[in-house]
Amino acid sequence: MKEAIVKVFSKVSLTLRKHSPEILVVSGTIGLIAAGILACKETTKLDKVLAEGEARENELAEKINKVDDFKESGAVAEDSYTERDEKIEVTRMWAQNAFSVAKLYAPSIILAVASTSAILGGFGILKARHAAITMAFGEMSAAFAEFKKRTQAVVGDEKYREILDGVKKEMKEVIDDNGNPIVAEVDTVDPVKDPYTFIWDETTTKESGAYKKGCFADNEAYLRAVQTAVNNKLRNLTGYIFLNEVLEDLGLPKTKAGQEVGWVINPGEGHTGDNYIDFGAEIIDDVDKETMKFTRRYILHFNCDGYILDTFEHAFEGDK
Questions:
Q1: Sequence ranges of the domains in the chain
Q2: Exposure of 224 in the CB half-sphere (CA atoms within 13 A)
Q3: How far apart are CA 149 and CA 145, in angstroms?
Q4: Does residue 243 have a pLDDT over 90?
Q5: pLDDT (tens digit, 9 = 90+) per residue, 62-103?
Q6: What is the pLDDT of residues 161-185, one digit of tens each?
Q7: Residue 181 burial class via C-beta count within 10 angstroms: exposed 0-12, middle 13-18, buried 19 and up
Q8: For residue 170, how far is the Cα from the chain centroid?
Q9: How far apart (Å, rounded) are the C-alpha atoms in residues 104 and 86?
Q10: CB distance 252 to 200 below 8 Å
Q11: How far lies 252's CA from each of 137, 205, 272, in Å?
Q12: Parallel, antiparallel or unpaired: strands 282-287 and 181-188
């Protein structure tokens, strides 16, 4: 029985820890709404509190006037109620009035402060988790890049590209230029799924994309032109570019990672990036699954620096 309770408690604790940011933000939001409602409710009592304060003010003013009259008539001595005594009573009266108003709104203020603290606490947890994920992503990206370099050094360039692009040679029935079915050796591709690798062809680009089916020279010229353009922007304009900007230029769909990873030019000491953009284009003559005719696919291996949201502000540092 004890072990079962411990297991249940452990799961509940882990669940609460996992969803603590959402719990804190939702609780804080509800608390702020409740604080607003409570403040509105207490405002209905404000007129009464202000009236009591005004009564105290009038009472004190009447007392001071009577003392002044008594002083003029000689009924009381001049030093029996000095100006300092008057200031002390006025200050006490205003403090009492302020305390009455503060006391009225104290519950809503305390609730609002606690709710704001909960929201900020949830944000802090999310920020810490994001930093941890970013660090892990950077380390994994660096490790994968080093692994690819070592693999290429061991197996050679040709075999390395076959592994990276998932190139397989198969005998398939295809349609020749005359429309006749023939059996030929074809290459099929299944590139490694990583955030920087994309296939650029008629199946992956938007309808309005620049890819032109069958126009090999135009497509390759366009790739070179876009690569030159984004490098000019990187080096001479912004100093940084996100991957999604390049994907958009090529007519490829944007990715979640693409809005945080990219390139930075000369971001100071310790930078491991290339300071230029390389599409790493590989050409594969594959077979169109619909027409069974040969087609050309371009596998793009972008040389992204990695996560740049914490380095893009240092763009151009180190320039002479």
A1: 2-136, 156-314
A2: 6
A3: 6
A4: yes
A5: 877 777 767 677 666 666 667 777 788 888 888 888 888 888
A6: 777 777 777 766 666 666 667 666 6
A7: exposed
A8: 44
A9: 27
A10: yes
A11: 23, 5, 27
A12: unpaired
